[in-house]
Structures are given as C-alpha cells and as structure tokens.
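Model it.
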Amino acid sequence: MNMSEAETLAKVEVLADLEEEVRELMVAHESKRILWFPSELLSAAPDTDPDKHIRDLRRRAEGISTPARVALALNLLTEEGLPHFHRLLAAYLGGDTFWSKWTNLWTAEEDRHGAVLHDYSRDSLVLNNPVLEKMQFEYLKSGFEPTWDKDPYRVFVYTTLQERATQVSHANTGKLASEYEPMIGTVLANVAKEEARHYVFYRNVFQEVLARDPNRALDSAASIMPSIDMPGVNMPHFREMADVIRRAGIYGPRDYLKIVEEQIRYWAIDAIEGLNEMGKKAQEKIMSIPARLERVADAMETRSRAKTFAFAVAFAREFEME
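Modeled.
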C-alpha cells in the first residue's frame, strides 16, 4: 500500500466513525424540511382554468429580463447535472455504507430542482427550450471531473461551498426574475431553502471531520477553498453566462469571498490548536485566502467594461451590461 492509499484509508476510517452523527444530522435535516413537488408549485389553483393559468404565466414571463433568463438557464442546467454528482458521491463515499442513505436522500431531493425549473421553462416559454435541451445533453455528455484526488474530505469542503453558492444564486435569481412574474420567485425560494439545508448538512459533517482529524482535514480544505469550479463549468457558454450573472449582481467573486469567510468563522479555523507542520501550513493558507479573493474581486471589477451579449437559449436577444 502506497502513502496515498494509506491516507485515503485513514480518512475512510474517520468517515466510518461518523455514522451516528450523520444519522442524527439526517433526522434533523428531514424534521425541518417541507417536502414539495414541482406540480404543487406550478399547477393552477383549484377551480382555475388551466389554459388561462398558462396564458397568464406566459404573459407575466414576457417581462423577465434577458439577464434573468440567462441566470435561469445556467441555474437550471447546473441542477440537471445531478447524474454527475450522484456518481461522484457514490464513488467517493461508497455505495454499500450508511453514507448511501444520505446520497440517495440528497439525490431524491435534488432531482426535483432540475425538474421544477425545466417544467417552469416549458410552461412559461421564458427560454428557448430546444436549445436548452441540447445544452443539457452536451453538458451531461462532457462530464464533470473535479480534482478531488480520491480524497473524501475534499468532497465535504466542496459540497459545503457549492451548496451555499447555489443557494445564493437561486435566491438572487428569484428576486430579479420575480419582479414581473412572482411564480418563479416562489419556485426559486423553495429550491434555495433546500440548498441551504444541504449546505448545513455538509458543513456540519466537515466540522465533525475537523474534530477527529484536524491536520488532514485542514490540508484537504486548503486545496479546495481558494477557488471552486461550479458543476456547470463544462456546459456550452458557461463562462459568458457566469459573467452575465456576476454583472447582474446575482453571484460573483465577492459572493464566494463571503462564503469562504463564513466557513472560516464557523469551523473556527484560526482557533484550532495542537497541529503538526502540515496542519499549521494549511491553517495559514486558509487564513490568507480571503485577502487573495478580495484582490481577485477588485481586479475583476476594475477590468470590467461594458459588453454586449447574446445567447441562443435566451432567443439570441442582444443586450448590453456594464
């Protein structure tokens, strides 16, 4: 057994020791959750003409701005990357352990996110649905292979940061898009609340890992926290769409900076003591990340110039953003 395999095995043993804590976290998670389904959020009210319901929805949706439509497309496609994430979680956490119960629950909850956004897009005609479906196909075909190096600790750091980022993006997209069409605000508020609960679960799991194996946990966190690729990074036009979302104030480098600062505070990274040399170096690196992210955000904002965009998924309408 080489050093890398031994390290991974040691981490797997730590995760196995978490079974009771994970069970308690799952009970807490489900006790606070209000389970909803796409048809409940999107269907016409009782005694309402369903055809009129759709006509009214489409009339209201005409007012949704093009940047908000781009954000909706990116958020929708990100959610529909679920098959990649189920595969990765199953591979890293094991398919024949107690972790599979969480992976299956998480998958069942997440599956509704892509479904409700896809159903909304189809009903409202807010996006060019044939183009959207082709983008989804290409995204799933291209795959998602994060550089986690078979490290189960990194899984929890990444999912903590990623779930929080999607929560912010969904919530802010809902605020922007619901100015004219309130139903999408309701839909995205429900999705964002569930992402928030997933975020709490993963954040608490990593806190337990830190308590048991602080040196290796910090080393894993230090490799992930400087920057994360969102799941949609391989989808067509991802970078340009992400630029629109940043310019619209929905999600950008400053939001990621806040997310990293939140985790540093919650995990009390600066207060962890008794570390070995590897742990101390990782601790110092993590504490330096916010300043670096601040510089990145400043530089991006300083270099940003007005730009014209057009996306086929948003009917190729040209629009300019500062």
